[in-house]
Write a structure and sequence with these properties.
Blueprint: H1 8-28, H2 38-52, E1 56-57, E2 76-79, E3 82-84, E4 99-108, E5 111-120, H3 126-144, H4 152-165, E6 169-170, E7 176-178, E8 185-189, E9 206-209, E10 212-214, E11 220-222, E12 229-231, E13 237-239, E14 242-246, E15 251-253
Antiparallel strand pairs: 1-4, 2-4, 3-12, 4-5, 6-10, 7-8, 9-14, 10-13, 11-12, 14-15
């Protein structure tokens, strides 16, 4: 497995792309309310990414496999039981009690920043609040394992242990990934595993961690649009994502938002 380590110029470009991606999530929160459509959220984000940030929305017209239609929108909006890759639509109005993941990837000067955040539409249910909180904790516990000398399996183990100890399940069909001047590259960063296994983590690596945690069983299916992934049992799913840089001392979160406090 050939893993590219980033030089100082690449790292600085990724820092910029990461900060800009995070700023989209900071911006869009005030627009999320009952009655708004996911298409409206896509349009707001698209204008902000293109006009305000002078970036390219990476999902727009992206395709990752022959025979799969290009993704038609600038962001992913995954509501309730949608695990990932939800397509914004003018037919999808948010309602009170919904949960929403917005996944943002921007390209700035050829480099990618990739991040996602969960939002509540109005007051959350107790069940939704707990799932979303535990899923974010899973992300942070994975990030805590990112340092030179550890292995990718340490990340997956930490995430899986925390999710399953709280009676949730980990989606296995989708994973984190290497990222730089390419949207998706090696290594694959799965969200389950055994300690001490997998690729050794080295300074200069950049990749995402993006656990998808289900309230019910882990099994998922892809809808007819060939993008939208949902839980088979129709129970809630949640996801959080950050783009990370492995440093000589540990890890730098390139997409960290102002609201976050990570110990």
């Amino acid at each position: 497995m050939a893993i590219r380590l980033r030089d100082s110029d690449e790292i600085e470009k990724m820092r910029i792309a990461g900060r800009l991606a995070a700023s989209v999530l900071d911006m869009i929160g005030t627009h999320i309310r009952p009655g708004v459509t996911t298409e409206e959220l896509d349009q707001i984000c698209h204008r902000f990414i293109v006009d305000d940030l002078d970036c390219i929305p990476a999902p727009l017209n992206y395709t990752n496999s022959p025979g799969i239609p290009p993704f038609p929108k600038s962001i992913c909006t995954s509501v309730n039981q949608v695990v990932c890759h939800g397509i914004p639509s003018d037919r999808k109005k948010l309602k009170k009690g919904d949960t929403l993941n917005i996944d943002i990837t921007v390209i700035k000067d050829g480099y990618f920043g990739d991040t996602s955040k969960m939002f509540f539409v109005g007051p959350p249910t107790v069940e939704a609040e707990r799932l979303i909180r535990i899923t974010q904790e899973c992300l942070y516990k994975g990030i805590e394992q990112v340092r030179p000398g550890n292995h990718l399996g340490d990340i997956g183990y930490a995430i899986q242990k925390h999710a399953e100890s709280n009676h949730y399940s980990v989606v296995r069909e989708f994973c984190g990934h290497g990222i730089s001047d390419r949207f998706h590259e090696e290594p694959q960063v799965v969200h389950y595993g055994k300690r001490g296994t997998g690729l050794e983590i080295k300074a200069g690596m950049t990749f995402t961690i993006e656990p998808m945690i289900n309230r019910g069983k882990r099994h998922v299916k892809v809808l007819a649009d060939q993008w939208t992934v949902v839980t088979k049992d129709h129970k809630l799913s949640a996801q959080w994502e950050h783009t990370l840089l492995v440093t000589t001392e540990g890890v730098e979160i390139l997409t960290l938002r102002d609201e976050e406090q990570v110990s």
